[in-house]
Amino acid sequence: MHRMRSRMHAAVAGLPANHLTLLNAYTAGVNQGLAGLRTRPWPYLLLRETPQAWLAEDSLLVVAAMAFDLHDASNRREYMLSRLDHYLPADLMRILAADGSEFDAPLMGEARAEVSLPTSPLVFAADAVINPVDAPTETAPVEVEGAVDGVASGSNNFAVAGRLTSDGRAILADDMHLGLRAPNIWFRARLRYADPRGVDGQVDVSGFSLPGVPGIVAGSNGRVAWGFTNSYGDWLDWVIVTWTDRDGSRYRTLEGEEDVRVFEEIIAVAGAEDQTLSVRETRWGPVLHDASPQDAEDGLDEHQSLALMWTIHRPGGLDLGLFDLATADNLEQAVAIANGLGMPAQNLLIADHHGRIGWTLAGRIPQRVGDCDPQRPLDPLAGCDWQADWLPPADAPQMLDPADDRLWSANSRVADGEALRLIGTGSYDLGARQRQIRDGLRARQQFSEADLLAIQLDTRALFLQRWWQLLREVTASAPSPALSRIHDASIEWEGQASVDAVSYRLVRAFRGKVIERIATALFAKAKASEGERWQEPVANQLEGLVWPLLQQRPEGWLAADIGGWDALLAAAATDVVTELEALGPLQQRTWGERNTARICHPLAGALPAGIADSLCMPSEPLPGDSHMPRVQGVSFGASQRMVVAPGFEADGIINAPAGQSGHPLSPFWSAGHSDWMQGRASGFLPGATVYQLQLLP
Asked: Which residues are CB-neighbours of 224 under 8 A, at least 6 positions away?
């Protein structure tokens, strides 16, 4: 429905000459390598398919695929906010749409104050009582947006300036959190080549490349080091399309009527006939929702639809400009390059060889016009739209040379005021992880690479401390044998997500049950009314509502059938006992048992268990979790770790969870995995040359 191949084919033609030359050479090299294979790679043999020739647009499609990982490509959050408006009071909706909480640690501004509970009386109706049969399991995610195994997707990066190191070096740390697989998403590489823009006519850049694109995505070139986290800004909008005919072939604009464009997208299906998807597209983007009876509440009628407007749909939204960072000489040059990039908008941290650090938003920023709520559908006929031009790069938010010589981001809100207005509010992560990183940076006055690695590996569960205390209070009177058993099993609070932690697992599961119960009750009426249109709302900030509710326990919020707040909490704790005791005694239910690695080849899921296991990294218990710097789930977490000071790459640290060979019998299949698991400081630069591949023109 997004027609990305067609869009990227057009984008290739618009690339500057130097990028097009690079891309064409890369494409020719891939295809020459393909032609030189003696046999098809094993996945193609298994699927009984033949590799197709690589096209220049395929490289941009790799970047687009990353955008689908990083952005809410269906704009689900804004869609469900507009629907929930009809079922929940406005003061409650303001909390659900919040951009942060008391846990925030932004670079600009302060944390949000704890919310005041809505004055509206009944929120949880009688039909919202959870049926125990349908109660979520321990493995169900709490955070919805981009969640895998209950861990919200995102990344960490942070940096310290030269004034905080012994020899004036600025140090950058970066770990990007994604779904983990084998071979690894990112490939380690060092590129050295002649380029007049480099130092003495030579570029020497090391770090992580992304297979399919010709360059280093995150790394250091000896002068500048850079790394990313997902910005979670507002990069998509719904647009109301008003049709002028019953067939939906013409629509209104401020300049007059236009014809809708219809594209027939062909989907090839192995072993069956091709499928055709008809896509209607407006000047704003593809039409994804036609009006229904429920839409009348939104002011939509049968002659209106919703089109999706997304930055990566627009010309210039994706390009190869990122790879120009390999030639940046200092902080200002890197920022200037970053602000004009066509890429999914990201928080970019930079350290340079002068000991300076900076933050900016990498990627192009849309300019909205009109006095409109960007979290609700825009009506162009009322003057609410995007300008044709991007925000000028010089106007992009940035923070260079911070006063306390420290910078950090971790997918929560980083900005405030005008900068926040430009970035917008997407689905920011709860600020607990970001605050823990900030506090870790402020706890020291001098740093080395090892000190920043230690922050990356921090598994302290500071956020859950209050939930442990709540569980102890709920179970203290032991009104049932089950609550007595969880009380005894949780008596010692480990304070971290270590593999042998029992209390941590119990408390985490308890919090999940409580939030799921409240969320289920909160959204029950909307879910029943929406039917097939229902999508689980993005609820990363739900803690900001749940905790005040549990502290104040207001009357009139719970249906009589629920039995009151004490009953709700006791039922949640009892569910944890029932679920975990099915596995054995509570005292033996460790976090490592629950959080055991499953990092596999994409085809592993299609094969029998015994064979599939050979396509996975070792199945080992993992420390870490969400809401702490060391984000790690069963198949989600740090897809790379990097700590490096530009000019001091020999002292840098690099980790990856899987190797760079796609063949499980290769000695490089799991190369580096053990260092990643143990958090060992493996070298940023390559070691001694063992194998050499010479490419001849």
From this structure: 325, 328, 329, 330, 331, 333, 334, 350, 351, 352, 353, 646
